From TrEMBL:
<dbReference type="GO" id="GO:0005524">
    <property type="term" value="F:ATP binding"/>
</dbReference>
<dbReference type="InterPro" id="IPR027417">
    <property type="entry name" value="P-loop_NTPase"/>
</dbReference>
<dbReference type="GO" id="GO:0016887">
    <property type="term" value="F:ATP hydrolysis activity"/>
</dbReference>
<dbReference type="Pfam" id="PF08352">
    <property type="entry name" value="oligo_HPY"/>
</dbReference>
<dbReference type="Pfam" id="PF00005">
    <property type="entry name" value="ABC_tran"/>
</dbReference>
<dbReference type="GO" id="GO:0015833">
    <property type="term" value="P:peptide transport"/>
</dbReference>
<comment type="similarity">
    <text>Belongs to the ABC transporter superfamily.</text>
</comment>
<dbReference type="InterPro" id="IPR013563">
    <property type="entry name" value="Oligopep_ABC_C"/>
</dbReference>
<keyword id="KW-0813">Transport</keyword>
<feature type="domain" description="ABC transporter">
    <location>
        <begin position="5"/>
        <end position="249"/>
    </location>
</feature>
<dbReference type="InterPro" id="IPR050319">
    <property type="entry name" value="ABC_transp_ATP-bind"/>
</dbReference>
<dbReference type="InterPro" id="IPR003439">
    <property type="entry name" value="ABC_transporter-like_ATP-bd"/>
</dbReference>
<dbReference type="GO" id="GO:0055085">
    <property type="term" value="P:transmembrane transport"/>
</dbReference>
<keyword id="KW-0547">Nucleotide-binding</keyword>
<dbReference type="InterPro" id="IPR003593">
    <property type="entry name" value="AAA+_ATPase"/>
</dbReference>
<keyword id="KW-0067">ATP-binding</keyword>
<protein>
    <submittedName>
        <fullName>ABC transporter ATP-binding protein</fullName>
    </submittedName>
</protein>
Amino acid sequence: TEQLVEVQDLKKYFPIKKDLSVKSVDNISFTVKKGETFGLVGESGSGKSTLGKTLVGLQQPTGGNIIYNGLDVTKFNKEMKRKVNKEMQIIFQDPHASLNPRMRVGDIIAEGLDAYKLLKGKERTNRIYQLLERVGLRPEHAKRYPHEFSGGQRQRIGIARALAVEPKFIVADEPISALDVSIQAQVINLMEDLKKSEGLTYLFIAHDLGMVKHISDRIGVMYLGKMMELSSSNDMFNRPLHPYTQALLSAIPQANPRTAKRDRIVLAGDPPSPTNPPSGCRFRTRCPHAMEICSHQEPQWKEVEHDHWTACHLY
Ligand code: SF4
Ligand code: MG
């Protein structure tokens, strides 16, 4: 199939007390195509990290289905899930917090190899050396500890760890947000390079659209646990449909202000609490186009143009 990951009505709720839960991922459906980079964008609290973690099996979904390579992972038993999840790895935002400070870099990189009992002894060591070189580090780095490395190098270690088990699908959860701007491009270039050589598919999570514009084939925009819009990167930037996307785009500084056609759309207020989202359309409290219907009827997720999806009563 052309689709690598198919998400159907996915829900991930976190109960906080009786009859109350945070609906971090609330009925989301979309697909990730084989070989693409899918950019997933949203403010903090939009549920994008939870969605990413649920896809790779670090969180159990509350409802819905995750179809990987034609197989419904949500129907699998633990053993089979484990097998599939080996092909789905994650790179975390903060390379400092995600690497155990008491472990040597070589053992960190081999975490997946050890968990799945893939290699031992000399073969394991050689694989660690090979992975270090693959991400631009050196074999002698295997003996050192994470604190001896810069932020960019630590993210390379995180990438090597994800690659160790030869995944097909990688969720990159804001992999460059914590890095110096001068280092960001290097890590992106490495990821692009690995994508080609290892035949990877990425779900690349970011908090702003500008960051994913050039690397994404398609982009999805999340708001308060819902997907608001999904399209090719080009369509998203040229013809955004959803008022939220339009506002996000208007906030991106233009390279050439003389040719800039977009007026800045300033959204009223902060995003509401995900514990108690607005009725109807969740975006309505900040939407410049909100209508009567928006307060009592939730807009449906629909394909408005070819492979251009949105949930808004304007369409
Ligand atoms: Fe705005 Fe209504 Fe569309 Fe929601 S459904 S984005 S409130 S116009
Ligand atoms: Mg996050």
